[in-house]
Amino acid sequence: xxxxxxxxxxxxxxxxxxxxxxxxxxxxxxxxxxxxxxxxxxxxxxxxxxxxxxxxxxxxxxxxxxxxxxxxxxxxxxxxxxxxxxxxxxxxxxxxxxxxxxxxxxxxxxxxxxxxxxxxxxxxxxxxxxxxxxxxxxxxxxxxxxxxxxxxxxxxxxxxxxxxxxxxxxxxxxxxxxxxxxxxxxxxxxxxxxxxxxxxxxxxxxxxxxxxxxxxxxxxxxxxxxxxxxxxxxxxxxxxxxxxxxxxxxxxxxxxxxxxxxxxxxxxxxxxxxxxxxxxxxxxxxxxxxxxxxxxxxxxxxxxxxxxxxxxxxxxxxxxxxxxxxxxxxxxxxxxxxxxxxxxxxxxxxxxxxxxxxxxxxxxxxxxxxxxxxxxxxxxxxxxxxxxxxxxxxxxxxxxxxxxxxxxxxxxxxxxxxxxxxxxxxxxxxxxxxxxxxxxxxxxxxxxxxxxxxxxxxxxxxxxxxxxxxxxxxxxxxxxxxxxxxxxxxxxxxxxxxxxxxxxxxxxxxxxx
Length: 513
Prior knowledge:
By secondary structure, the chain is α+β, with helices and mostly antiparallel strands. Helices cover 17% and strands 34% of the residues.
């Protein structure tokens, strides 16, 4: 049987499942994410009532009238592709005509009155072999040899009136296509298990493809950070958009501001909900609070059916360029594939670990064609494991260090004194605002434990590490009730006692197994 996966056709044995189709085509798909299954092109088309006729003078939109003229609408669905590459047949002050096409309709010899913008199926010469599509430009009466059903009127003009006025017999129809609206997809699509059995003509959509905007480098990188595992979770659904809120609260500079057309991907850059990302199902006007991240080029079918709590596979082209956490040599080889020049700085040995790339943003790197990679010795990087029992404090720590955006972050030493057995790092009071007590210690704070001063104390947001066990005070020197414990150092602790005030230390997060 023949099916399509993300628009590409494939022949499969009868009885094949969605999973079989994915494996046969190698379609992009992250396990557990949404899959859209549509019964077939003809079945989908039966739910679509809007068609776009592209001509050499512009586009025209027609809205079908399936309730008023069901037989004529059905005839249109079977013949509309025949208009492609035909010239406009004739124009008068009252009408334009496209055709001829062949139908199986029965003509009548009656005269009927037509209103402006009505679209008529006319059997010229009372012959079904000379069927024309007539668009009425003004109220008039005529004998068109139309079928009796609804005076031959099967649609109305809903867009492109100026195009209709400009058309002449020298113009041509370039294409005619159904306009897929969200309601059509939702009515015809199903979210499936991968073991669902397929039928002839099925269409499967597995991922959303986004083309990032070069004019919004910060916003694009924010989006890349959300896509670390290749998928997004829908946190909010409305008729006109779906929203992704995993990095809300992070403000960005205004970048490209433009209309939020269907398929636009935007970032709220300020105000309530800053850091949220949206993909639009319907057109909306531009607003200064939304940066354009990019546009969906494939997979709007998934955007249309996704609901709150669903996860969707997302890919970007071009994808993210990220050298941080690679060795200098790995970065060199990686960048060469993109045609990007590497400029090594810091420790330049092949096995040094890249802790900073400059420019930091993918779109800037692609524009400039080169990037500085700053290396440090591998043993200079602290490995930490964050505690899920302190979600607010862990979030603050990731933002403070930059671990939200890159695989390796940094901290600046605020206090380090030989023999004190504690090192403290600078915080950010504005980011730490609202850092309520959570996961406060009850007994001994162990060597290597990391803590943050919470909002009950003056030095909110300060980060500290204990270098020996202590039964009274947390890693930032505060009492236990003023300290939120966020995790522990799992590698490189032997280097901490060598730190001095003003030093920068690099940190990498170890994921809990």
